[in-house]
Design goal:
The protein folds into two domains: 25-48 and 150-237, Outer membrane lipoprotein wza domain like (Outer membrane lipoprotein wza fold like, Roll); 57-148, wza like fold, CATH 3.30.1950. 27% of the residues lie in helices and 22% in strands. The chain has six helices and ten strands. The two termini are 20 Å apart.
Amino acid sequence: MIKSKYLPFFFLMVLLFSCKSVPDDFIMFNDLNNGRSLNGNAINQENKEPVIIPGNDLQIIVSSSNVLDAQSIKQFNLLPLTPISQTATAVSKDMTFQMYTVNEAGEIEFPVLGIIKVQGLTHFELEARIQEKLKTSIADPVVRVNITQNRVRVLGEVKLPGIYDIENRSRYSILDALAEAGGITMEGDKKRVKLIREEDGKLQSVVLNLTTSDIFMSPYYYMKPNDVIVVDPNSTRKKDAQYGSADNYRLTVISTLIGSVSVIVSMVLLVINNAK
């Protein structure tokens, strides 16, 4: 039997162990709170520029800064373009009708120039390639390319699961994708964020831990087209699914009441012992 003079300490220990602190896996980049510094660490630059893949729609406009090229540029666009002004040959940024779909071979068929291999190029590289080809026909060609159908999917324990467009955006990271999805919910496991990626027709997957700053140095920090992010539920969410949130709430209330009673009893016994 526990002697009465030790009972207050016993109940105090029960109370302390029944109290829960916030788990580390609730906090992103928790290692920075523990003294780690990112000073001098370089972000992994792999995949920072989105590249063209089969299935992309490319909006391409050819224009010129030279008034003498006004007639020449028409043959290199799918539809006639409306000049910004009567004297300027530059066109508006509306590229709605200048659409090319990249086929399975990674190619598009361009007016006059014919078949162009575009797969694996960034929009800057494709602009430069088409511009170079046009120099034999246009004195000062200007080419603008916008990549559409460049998307990532964010699923699981986020506030707004869905499909999000990368398009031409460079340096689009997993943090950007999660931010657009409203962030990870309190029920999400930040230690287990799955990323599924297609490489050369083959699928690969990796589990990322967002409670450490290692993600900044990871080759999976920047997103690639068609990446899928899945945030797993944490242990609390899994218990809710298994037992029901109402049951878990009742258990929490009971645990709190037991802890409170333990404190009251320990205080009463302490007073009685001091009175003897």
